[in-house]
Write a structure and sequence with these properties.
Structural class: alpha+beta
Distance between the termini: 40 Å
Strand content: 5-15%
Number of helices: 2
Largest sheet: 2 strands, parallel
Number of strands: 2
Length: about 70
């Protein structure tokens, strides 16, 4: 942690120890909580659902080109 900054996005129901936020290289992101997970994205892609609003364009293109998560 001395050489890198760690950005923490809160995820329910988990809660990080408050001690971690005392470190100068750790930053808590204050953002709305989104009920989304990588499992949701992968299973949605396997069902051929449009996930472009959940992924950066480059990631979506790579997944499509490599035919990842296809049933």
């Amino acid at each position: 942690l001395d050489n890198y900054q760690l950005i923490v996005y809160p995820r329910m129901p988990f809660k990080a120890s408050s001690d971690i936020y005392q470190l100068p290289t750790v930053k808590l992101v204050e953002a709305p909580y989104l009920e989304i997970s990588s499992t949701f994205i992968r299973s949605s892609l396997a069902k051929a659902w449009d996930m472009r609003f959940f992924l950066p364009e480059g990631v979506a293109v790579y997944i499509r080109n490599e035919k990842l998560y296809v049933l």
